[in-house]
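Just scan my protein:

. . .
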Amino acid sequence: MMKQILIYIIIGVAVLMGASYLIGAPKHVGMHLAEAASPLADCDTTDSPLRFSREVADELKYYFDRHDVQDEGFEMVAAIASGRRLTVSVNPVLSAMSIGTWQGRQRKGTVVSLDSLQRTVVATWQADTIERGLRADSTGIYVGDFSGLKAHGHGAMFLTDGSYSEGHFADDLRQGFGVQLLHPYGEEPRLQAGEWSKNRFMGERMRYTTERIYGIDISKYQHGKGRRAVPIHWDKLRIIHVGKRGSHNVSGTADYPVSFIFIKSTESTTIRNKFYASDYAQARKRDIRVGAYHFWSMRTTGADQAQHFLRNTLFKDGDLPPVLDIEPSKSQVEQMGADRMFQQIRIWLRAVERSTGVKPILYVNQMFVNNYLSKQPDLKRDYRVWIARYSEYKPDVRLAFWQLCPDGRVAGIQGDVDINVFNGYKSQFEEFIETETIKRN
């Protein structure tokens, strides 16, 4: 019995010393957003309470470039960026009666104990009920609220690899909103701010407001599916519904201008959209930013498809970057082979970039990102992504555009329309137009 008590004491003291070292930063009080974001204006973070690596600073800067105070979690990310970490206060003075569980005695004050998984818990108790504290195991230290001996309520995890997460926990699992800054050894850092469900990151729940930049993509199908063509009433264009697929958090009633349009130009090596030229002219006439996309085929070469796209597509000053729409099925990828597919995709990308002077955008869906694009680090690094994900949650990748629904409604267009949103606000969109669009003298 005495040996067990000594072990408790040694573990408790070690945990308290480790916690003091790891979480000595101030509590979440008095956050100033301007101070939080200011160290990220440049990669020099010498004025920050924490000295971030260049990669972490870049990840945080990317977040702040595309979010503002109205976005859920902005203040929590700002606090992390400024070096603040969640802390709890426990009395470091222990008595023998505060170690372990004593028969017939309620736990009170600072108590050291082991849970069912043999994790050491140092916490504040009142009337035999845990209030808050910290818990250590081989993965790191949890600090925050408890229910029983399980993490429950607001808390944070300090992982041994330097990663940090904070948010709501339920029965030892991440549940609800939270922020996580991952920085595993040998890997790129990654910031996640959004909703968790049973430890799985679901994504950021975007709030649709008039401040965001919306657009559409169209093809021949917006002109009807029968023999009789249906006109687009260009002077009436207005996004009036963001679709029924997924649960979209719309502030007020959807009523957004169309700020950009991508028009299908070609497919494979022989197919052309007969409405492309006229739709392109109408969009330019109304000063709507316009770009073209090519629908990828797994049956022909990247060189031949690039030639077909370049020969039949217009590229004028200020146009959006060209887009390669990649939507193969799993069986098509298996038949062709992923390596050969990406070899041909790279040929298309390089040929189109040489001709237009700008890097094309990759249009893909979430499945393609998870199964294939994640294994192509050069493409993820060097090319902007436009992703189709019909969910209430924003895709967890760096992206230029997000196609959020295929069944939106636009005044002036008959039938369903793909609705897209730019990843950023007005200033970021203006920067994108200035730096990424086609330049023609």
Summary: Residues 1-13, 15-50 have pLDDT under 50 and may be disordered. The longest strand covers residues 401-411. Residues 294 and 432 are 21 Å apart (CA to CA).
